[in-house]
Amino acid sequence: MDALSNLFEGFGTALTPMNLVWVVVGALLGTAVGVLPGLGSAMAVALLLPVTFTLEPTSALIMFAGVYFGGLFGDSISGILMNTPGNSTAIAGTFEGHRMAKNGRAPQALATSAIGAFIGGIVATTLVVFFAPTLASLATNFGPAEYFALAVFAFIATSAVVSDSVLKGLSALLIGLTLAVIGIDGPSGASRFTFEVPSLFDGVHIVVITVAMLALGEVIHVASKIGKPDDTTLIPSKGRPFLTRSEFREALPAWMRGTAFGVPFGVIPAGGAEVPSFLAYGTERRLDRRRPNPMFGKGAIRGVAGPEAAGNSTAGTAMGALLALGLPTSATAAILLAAFQQYGIQPGPLLFDRNGEIVWALIASLFVGMVVLLILNLPFAPLWAQLLRIPKNYLYAGITVFASLGVYASSASVVDLMFMLGLGVIGFMLRRFGIPLAPVLIAVILGPLAEDSLRRALAVSEGDATILIGSGITVVLYTLMIIAVVFSAVTKVRSRRRVDF
């Protein structure tokens, strides 16, 4: 009952006229950026991070709630209408969604996506209301060794397990950890990788890293393809932007199954919703084969419903893991953690006690944001699709200017702009060679936590390294990590054998 009373107080804050405006603004901006191919929800949050410096913490975080889920839905619009998903989390739903669009059912595909995102997000956020405070209270048992184990688990899961190549994933992790240690080391006072540049003594700001890697890296990547043939065409979306009763009944089981897949993955550092969305897609495809008239390959509505619900339910519980544990389980969540930190708020076990008013207002705004997105996207998704007609040279030039102004406004440092350019080139190279970005961002965010926790644990034990595996929680975390690595390795070996034969 405490959770419900706190939630109602949160609604009192979230439903004030000004905060409602910020929810709507966040939903609009998140969807607008998410629609554009290659940008996605993580890019939306990264680009808007510098803009919110002048806002109150509650208003800024409420706005990010709208951006967070708006970007996820925008990812799917470009995938369904152009077969170019805005982010990797929208790939699974694109397979059947684009086929539906080609068959003249684009509005129904977009409606299926919108309703699935709404159902998955609502269910996941409801679970967060009841279980996040409990998870936070359990997390008070975490000490330095447990937090170090949690960070290592996140590093390995996002780099070695989720990535197609272990080497590429670990390379991305190393880049992120290198960026994380730039600056003056607190305990010793030694400078690390600063090259005697005073502006680097405080390290590289997370805003610079995220904007450079996500925004500028994508701009350079797109520029490198100028002159190459582009076979993507925008399919017009005309017709009824809603589902008939029979279509709704057909999609409902897939929405529920997709939600069930996505909920647990939100608290696992698996880099995002790619895994549960593909699991949901695979499940619907196997079930479809048993039907008298299989629809997969022809534009199956369940092939859109399952992955879309899985993606948003993962995002919902990922927010719970971020609030209760301070653990970002995806690239977007890592940037949201940076948004908290810029206001001096540290997500984790003590957040609900120290900043309860802000937290419950944020959770309430998630519900409000999803209702707003359903209202905006169900009838107006075809209008969002018109953004895809903007010429790329104008679009990406504008993104570059906006990103540069945001970085400069956050610190008024020319060195940050130079760093942004250098990191943008690195972001382009990562894309060029297929190296994932999520491990870089998560390493940058969790690297200082892992280092500090390791030092504190060893200091408490007077150098005895067995403290790192001295509790039941650390043993469970390391055991889960080993199981995940072994399972991933076996799965990859089997898939390669199938390809060979």
TrEMBL record:
Keywords, in A-Z order: Membrane, Transmembrane, Transmembrane helix
Question: Which InterPro entries does its entry note?
Answer: DUF112_TM
Q: Report whether Transmembrane helix shows up as a keyword of the record.
A: yes
Superkingdom of the organism of origin: Bacteria
- Tell me which Pfam families the record gives: TctA (PF01970)
Q: Where are the transmembrane segments?
A: 20-49, 61-82, 109-132, 144-163, 169-188, 200-223, 318-339, 359-382, 394-421, 465-490
Residue ranges constituting the DUF112 domain according to the UniProt record:
20-441
- Can you name this protein? Putative tricarboxylic transport membrane protein
Q: In which organism is this protein found?
A: Rhodococcoides kroppenstedtii
